[in-house]
Amino acid sequence: IYAARQRVFAVEQQCIYLDIDGCDESAWHLAAWSPSQREPLAYARVLDPGVKYAEASIGRVVTVGAGRGIGLGRELVARAIAHAGEVWPGGAIRISAQTRLERFYEDFGFVAVGAPYLEDGIDHTEMLRDPAKV
Hints:
Elements: H1 2-12, E1 28-32, E2 42-47, E3 56-63, H2 72-87, E4 93-98, H3 102-106, E5 111-112, E6 117-119, E7 122-129
Parallel strand pairs: 3-4
Antiparallel strand pairs: 1-2, 2-3, 4-7, 5-7, 6-7
């Protein structure tokens, strides 16, 4: 999982940041695996409310090159949302999305809350999914 995250976030996006933030130990981890490679094709983690935001959050969403273009990213986000809905029924989900992916997350009911900001040299936008409004 760390290899997949580093391949995309650090190498492909040429971004140096501290990926290990102390949240993985308490996160729910979702991954799509292939027997033909060591790292997952896609991955995301779901954090409990109060860990990063007051709401539950989804983050570290990644799809490696071999998994792109076949809908794994969409399936993974859908499953992460479904998982959060099972564990925290009726609860909102907050994310820090790369701004270029706003439309992708809007398809899942997320709306931008606030102006874009720079995080690790990449434009991000905080987004919220309120199940009462979806």
